[in-house]
Specification:
- It is a single chain.
- This protein has about 150 residues and is an alpha+beta fold.
- It has helices spanning about 5-20, 25-40, 45-65; strands at about 90-95, 95-100, 105-110, 115-120, 130-135, 140-145.
- The longest helix has 21 residues, at about 45-65.
- The model has no long low-confidence stretch (mean pLDDT about 90).
Length: about 150
């Protein structure tokens, strides 16, 4: 079996493994292996094939890490809608009460069959009406005027 075929089979195996892991890093290594296969097809020596494959895989991994697909977004669990399905749900607050000694507004609201303490987010307006849950701190809902304010 020719050397370039081995490189391409290894690249194909990594692509299949990447489909199961969905990390994209195995795909970058597969690109390096495919370039190593091209180097073998051209007739370069084994040492150059290995060097080209390693350099391309490292550069591709570096570029992926610098792109928006390689960055991890850190969201606190109390604000993450993937952790808590109540984030982004709407509630209606009829009237806000200003806290004595504090600059914030609070209210008591019935949500999902129970009474909850609700706190107005610092950027939200204290008018009565429809609000969206942005964060949950213990048994307190932090709400804002629009669903996209996290």
């Amino acid at each position: 079996m020719a050397g370039w075929v081995m490189w391409m089979l290894a690249a194909g195996l990594l692509v299949v493994m990447e489909l199961f892991t969905t990390t994209l890093y195995l795909l970058m290594v597969a690109i390096g292996l495919a370039v190593g296969g091209v180097a073998a097809l051209i007739g370069w020596g084994v040492e150059w094939q290995l060097l080209v494959a390693a350099v391309v895989a490292l550069v591709a991994t570096y570029l992926l890490r610098r792109s928006k697909f390689g960055r991890r977004t850190k969201v606190q669990a109390e604000r993450d809608p993937n952790v808590n399905l109540d984030i982004g749900q709407s509630i209606t607050v009829e009237q806000w009460q200003q806290d004595a000694g504090a600059a914030g507004y609070t209210a008591r609201v019935k949500y999902r069959g129970a009474m909850w303490d609700v706190e107005l987010a610092p950027t939200a307006n204290a008018d009565g009406g429809l609000f969206f849950i942005q964060e949950i701190r213990g048994s307190r809902l932090i709400v804002g005027n629009s669903p996209g304010q996290h």
